[in-house]
């Protein structure tokens, strides 16, 4: 691939990939602002409304690892085009939805397309940029787009939802078509070396179905009864499928999630942190949007503006600031501080009153969550990668991303169910509708804070081996790259110290 592109075209190709990434990131945050409008239009209950988010998270997380393997076998550009096309068509289907299950099914297909495109986009970037400094700059650009897309998403979601919630999905059409066409003309297809490795389809199917059943059981637990045959049966089936997944992973030659990696303490703990952090983060976004619209009666546009400080702070951290903090204070301290700030942000909303004031009751939480989220994400990935061999860095990164998606889906299901159960209980005891709704959200925020606090405790126990190390004199292989060297180079680029070199040629 790299032989066919000059320097200018490589950067143009990066911008095309960034545009595709932006579209996928937009869809993660833009939907949160529109949830109350979608609920009213299609008649969702509050617990079932979580499926608009969960359907996307589950398939996205479930197919990340498999999609990366498919890209290695059949070509990264080909898979990227398939992912973008699938995501774009599913977005159009979402905009046409007239029933709950049609929208949920389209969102699930969106998740598959997003997983495919996301999994191979980074591999394309690694192939496009082999120079150390250019690669670090390219990683900074894609990181900024990923974080900045959240800010654009909440604001754009507010504007478009004011007109119609269907526009939040239709906006993906021109972007998707443009990315697909430009990718065909600018990014050349790479030659694919056919290998004998088999795809772990069974692993992907069992783990995704297991989590799908678990989330379904939790979301519908209040209505069906927690000790009902339906709830217990679904949870039992979920456990059985997860056990089957573990058996499959221990026996196949090319496992989707090599179990041997979990013997690495830092990786295992980082995955646990990722699950808990994602559970708290997705619940915060989901419940905050509902609190602002259902309790404080904010318009969708105002909700978008309210989330702007959080998303902008996360974006600013991605522009090298997080790298500098990690290099100055270390991974463990940076991760712990970020998670602690997010915990406090959740606790603040757990006391937000019915007649809350933006400056006193909302903005402090938004700022703390922005700082905390921006500071915690990259150290969490670094903690996972610190003791992993270079040729396993891609799998390790995929595991953390998958853990985040699955943790977000399960956590959101649990917290929304707790919130709805609390609201129903208070309503039945005679408490007013708004007060009961607000108290239910308090329960959800408090549970999210507990998840985040447990993540803080785990981060404190991370081994010190996950600290940035000086560069080795030995270059790394083409299969992977020490993630700390990436961060040292990013810092050097922003400090205009081009004499530092980045060793290796791969990054996850």
Describe the structure.
Helix 2 (46-74) runs antiparallel to helix 3. By secondary structure, this protein is mainly alpha-helical. The chain has 2 domains: 1-200, MFS general substrate transporter like domains (Growth Hormone, Chain: A); 257-468 and 477-508, MFS general substrate transporter like domains (Growth Hormone, Chain: A, Up-down Bundle), CATH 1.20.1250.20. It contains 17 helices and no strands. It has helices spanning 7-42, 46-74, 76-95, 100-128, 132-163, 167-170, 172-186, 201-219, 221-224, 229-251, 265-295, 300-329, 331-349, 358-385, 393-428, 433-460, 483-494.
CATH topology value of the largest domain: Growth Hormone, Chain: A
Query: From the helix content, strand content and strand pairing, which structural class follows?
Result: mainly alpha
Q: CATH class of the largest domain, please?
A: Mainly Alpha
CATH architecture of the largest domain: Up-down Bundle
Low-pLDDT windows of residues = 191-196, 465-508
Order of helices and strands: HHHHHHHHHHHHHHHHH
Q: How many separate domains make up the residues?
A: 2
Strand content range:
under 5%
Can you count the beta strands? 0
Q: Fraction of residues in helices?
A: over 70%
Please tell me what the overall shape is.
globular
Report the biggest beta sheet as strand number plus sense, adding barrel if it closes.
none
CATH superfamily of the largest domain: MFS general substrate transporter like domains
């Amino acid at each position: 691939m790299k032989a066919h592109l000059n320097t200018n075209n490589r950067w143009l190709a990066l911008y095309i990939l960034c545009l595709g990434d932006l579209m996928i990131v937009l869809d993660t945050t833009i939907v949160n602002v529109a949830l109350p409008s979608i609920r009213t239009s299609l008649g969702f209950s509050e617990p079932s409304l979580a499926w608009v988010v969960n359907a996307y998270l589950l398939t996205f997380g479930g197919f990340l690892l498999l999609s990366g393997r498919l890209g290695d076998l059949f070509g990264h550009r080909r898979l990227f085009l398939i992912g973008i096309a699938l995501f774009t068509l599913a977005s159009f289907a979402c905009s046409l939805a007239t029933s709950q299950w049609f929208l949920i099914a389209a969102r699930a297909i969106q998740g598959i397309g997003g997983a495919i495109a996301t999994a191979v986009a980074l591999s394309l970037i690694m192939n496009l940029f082999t120079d150390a400094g250019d690669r670090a700059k390219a990683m900074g650009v894609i990181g900024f787009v990923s974080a900045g897309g959240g800010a654009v998403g909440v604001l754009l979601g507010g504007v478009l939802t004011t007109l119609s919630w269907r526009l939040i999905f239709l906006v993906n059409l021109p972007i998707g078509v443009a990315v697909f066409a430009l990718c065909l003309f600018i990014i050349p297809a790479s030659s694919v070396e056919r290998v004998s490795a088999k795809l772990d389809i069974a692993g992907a199917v069992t783990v995704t179905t297991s989590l799908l059943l678990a989330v379904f059981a939790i979301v519908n637990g209040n209505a069906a009864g927690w000790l009902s045959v339906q709830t217990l049966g679904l949870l039992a089936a979920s456990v059985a499928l997860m056990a089957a997944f573990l058996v499959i992973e221990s026996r196949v030659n090319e496992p989707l999630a090599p179990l041997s990696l979990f013997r690495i303490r830092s990786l295992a703990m980082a995955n646990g942190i990722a699950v808990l952090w994602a559970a708290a983060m997705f619940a915060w976004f989901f419940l905050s949007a509902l609190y602002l619209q259902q309790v404080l009666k904010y318009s969708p546009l105002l909700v978008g503006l309210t989330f702007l400080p959080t998303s902008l702070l996360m974006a600013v951290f991605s522009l090298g600031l997080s790298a500098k903090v990690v290099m100055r204070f270390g991974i463990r301290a940076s991760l712990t501080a970020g998670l602690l700030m997010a915990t406090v942000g959740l606790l603040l909303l757990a006391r937000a009153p019915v007649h809350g004031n933006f400056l006193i009751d909302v903005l402090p939480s938004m700022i703390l969550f922005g700082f905390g989220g921006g500071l915690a994400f990259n150290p969490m990935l670094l903690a996972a990668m610190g003791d992993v061999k270079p040729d396993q860095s891609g799998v390790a990164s995929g595991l953390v991303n998958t853990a985040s998606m699955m943790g977000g889906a399960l956590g959101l299901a649990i917290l929304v169910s707790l919130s709805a159960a609390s609201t129903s209980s208070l309503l039945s005891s005679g408490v007013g509708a708004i007060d009961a709704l607000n108290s239910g959200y308090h329960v959800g925020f408090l549970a999210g804070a507990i998840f985040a606090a447990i993540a803080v405790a785990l981060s404190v126990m991370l081994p010190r081996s996950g600290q940035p190390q000086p560069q080795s004199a030995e270059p790394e292989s083409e299969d992977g790259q020490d993630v700390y060297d990436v961060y040292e180079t990013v810092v050097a680029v922003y400090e205009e110290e081009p004499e530092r070199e980045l060793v290796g040629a791969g990054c996850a």
